[in-house]
Amino acid sequence: DQQVKQNSPSLSVQEGRISILNCDYTNSMFDYFLWYKKYPAEGPTFLISISSIKDKNEDGRFTVFLNKSAKHLSLHIVPSQPGDSAVYFCAASGKQGAQKLVFGQGTRLTINP
Amino acid sequence: GAVVSQHPSWVICKSGTSVKIECRSLDFQATTMFWYRQFPKQSLMLMATSNEGSKATYEQGVEKDKFLINHASLTLSTLTVTSAHPEDSSFYICSARDDGRAKNIQYFGAGTRLSVL
Question: Tens digit of pLDDT for each residue in B25-44?
Fold first, then answer.
């Protein structure tokens, strides 16, 4: 049962344009969502998060949008830079489950020069 | 801030031996740490939640006698893969929750690639 889904395994974007990564979840008990960036053979790096009481959170080039009714969140990166090329994971946690994170399958983002 | 160090980064061992992986929070205290496993091109799968001073909580299907977890201090958790076999070869990643920050954010180590021959 995949509670957090990232349906696009890969995404290719031109440098300078906007990258939009999507994530869907099924568990309505999730109330906190996070995005992590991961390079090969390294651990994930925390990027940005959002609580379910908000619908948008922005940090520099990164903005996360949350649509609770659709159980959907997205990460916008603008402008995209070559160093943004990595695998991006969305994760969710809820009040139940001792703050365990449930991860999506990841989306490989490639920024083309 | 919020740096997590994981050691070793890569280990090769013979089948039947045990391997210990360390996870340290360098600049914060972590009552709770987590151990994940990642197979190629797949997501991170939580193996267990490690709590300082108490027994770890294992996810369904994870053998606690095979994957021994010890969380003896607020900055160190260890995972020991006992009697390792080739099917245990994988990428193991730890994370730690900073007691002084937002509780839902986990900070990850760089991971350990285990190869069992």
Answer: 999 999 899 999 998 878 89
Q: What is the pLDDT of residues A44-62, one digit of tens each?
A: 999 999 999 999 999 999 9
Q: Give, in degrees to the nearest 5, the angle at Cα A107 between A20 and B105.
A: 85
User: In A, which residues are within 8 Å of B91 by CB distance?
Assistant: 41
Longest dimension (CA), chain B: 41
What pLDDT is stored for residue B25 in this prediction?
Answer: 93
- The gap between the terminal CA atoms of chain B, to the nearest Å, is 37
Q: Where are the beta strands (DSSP E) in A1-113?
A: 4-5, 10-14, 19-25, 30-38, 45-51, 56-59, 62-67, 72-77, 86-94, 102-103, 107-112
Q: Which amino acid is residue A27, in one-letter code?
A: N
Q: Do A49 and B107 touch (CB under 8 A)?
A: no
Contact state of A42 with B111 under an 8 Å Cβ cutoff = yes
Please tell me the distance from the alpha carbon of residue A38 to that of residue A78, in angstroms, as a whole number: 18
DSSP code, position B89: -
